[in-house]
Design goal:
10 strands; 4-stranded antiparallel sheet; 54% helix; single chain; alpha/beta; 6-stranded parallel sheet
Length: 424
């Protein structure tokens, strides 16, 4: 088994690249099946969020990194040479360390943000549903979840909760003197938008409108927070009412275009509008930033907003790194232990076959009239010769080659207490 991680994230690639390699939720199982059935990997889990797309794979050897990157480029129809500079790859221990850091929130745009663990768990569940995960990645992800839970409970990494949602609301508070006088239009009804809505509610925003592809889901969230629910198709009728627009959907095409914003700004008599697009692929056309009095921000623009929160978590992150190193070591030991367990099972099976063969001879001897004493002596002699045959041959070969290290190891394995010089 070799573990490999290949991906792009907010550190290595701009949003323009990340949105092109993002996987739509409804196509995830198809993508996993393509990756595994194409023999690029024997097992696979794909984590795709607004800030990263990563492929976690179990492969047959260490030399197939490029083929994974090529699969990613071919699946999304991106030129390999264009994509390659933005990709990174981690092998074995480095791959284990990376997934544990990701799940613990140490590799996130906002240090310690908790949402990523749920996203990783969801990615794992999808891979299980698609039957694209086996014992290697199952063991890795179960260990990862355990480590991430320990990081969350044993360090202060999760104190003073922050997230992309929190950063978006913080930005709105910096733009507007008092958000309690504002109307917010939230596009989408997933976990991120739910967090945004709760943060806005806590800050006392006057009015919240939730727009979603299905009205029932939007209404469910709206009912919880005393908000209003509309369909995505009705955004044009309400956009001019919004001072703050925050969008996070899984749409593969933009929902808000330049023309729609221009009409809304005109209807607002050019009162400023803040638009925060935290979706990948983007929900709001980049050209919107050309509209006067419309201020568009993407997830990449939130970096400066969250720097203060990052500083507050550095000490906790150092403690978390130690926990992760322990997790990497524990996982490595577990993998090596499984290898030894297989060897032990094989050794016991071999010994059991020898025992059964000699026992069968003994029973036949008794049936033929041989005395019990004679049968027992033959049984004991046969067992001894068969069981010491391979170790004896190993010792002779090691002695002939003057391999003292091999002789010493053999003495320890066989439980011999003689002085080492007797084995020379």
């Amino acid at each position: 088994m070799s573990l490999i991680t290949v991906g792009v994230n907010h550190k290595t690639a701009p949003v323009a690249i990340r949105e092109r390699v993002a996987f739509a939720p409804e196509k995830m199982i198809d993508a996993l099946s393509s990756l595994v059935s194409g023999k690029k990997a024997s097992e696979a889990v794909i984590v795709s969020t607004c800030n990263r797309t990563e492929l976690y794979c179990s492969i047959e050897n260490d030399a197939d990194v490029e083929s994974i990157v090529r699969w990613l480029s071919e699946y999304h129809q991106i030129d390999f040479e264009e994509l390659k500079p933005y990709c990174y790859a981690h092998l074995n221990d480095d791959s284990v360390r990376h997934i544990m850091r990701v799940a613990s929130g140490l590799d996130s745009l906002i240090l310690g943000e908790p949402q990523i663990l749920g996203q990783v768990k969801s990615a794992y569940a999808v891979s299980k549903e698609g039957e694209c995960i086996g014992p290697d990645l199952q063991s890795l992800f179960q260990r990862t979840f355990s480590v991430a839970k320990r990081v969350r409970t044993d360090t202060a990494i999760g104190e003073n909760p922050v997230s992309i949602a929190f950063a978006a609301v913080s930005l709105a508070q910096r733009i507007f003197a008092d958000v309690r006088d504002n109307t917010a239009l939230l596009i989408g009804a997933g976990q991120t938008i739910e967090l945004v809505a709760r943060h806005l509610k806590e800050q006392g925003v006057k009015r919240i409108i939730v727009a979603n592809r299905t009205l029932a889901r939007a209404q469910c969230l709206a009912d919880e927070l005393g908000a209003e629910a509309i369909l995505l198709g009705d955004i044009g009728d309400h956009l001019s009412e919004a001072d703050i627009v925050i969008s996070s959907t899984a749409s593969q095409l933009p929902i808000i275009g330049k023309g729609l914003v221009e009409k809304a700004i005109s209807k607002r008599r050019f009162a400023p509008m803040l638009l925060i697009d935290i979706a990948v692929p983007r929900d709001i056309e980049p050209e919107v930033e050309e509209v006067s009095d419309a201020y568009l921000y993407t997830v990449d623009d939130l970096h400066s907003v969250i720097e203060e929160n990052v500083r507050a978590r550095q000490d906790a992150a150092q403690a978390a790194e130690l926990i992760i190193e322990e997790g990497v070591d524990t996982f490595r030991r577990a993998v090596e232990s499984r290898k030894v367990s297989d060897l032990i099972v094989q050794y016991r099976r071999s010994a059991d076959e020898i025992k059964n063969a000699e026992l069968e001879k003994a029973l036949k001897g008794l049936e033929s009239g041989q005395s019990p004493e004679q049968v027992i002596n033959k049984l004991a002699h046969g067992l001894m010769n068969k069981l010491i045959h391979s170790p004896t041959r190993y010792l002779r070969d090691a002695g002939a080659e003057s391999n003292q290290e091999a002789l010493t190891i053999a003495a320890n394995v066989l439980g011999l207490n003689e002085d080492k010089d007797n084995l020379k």
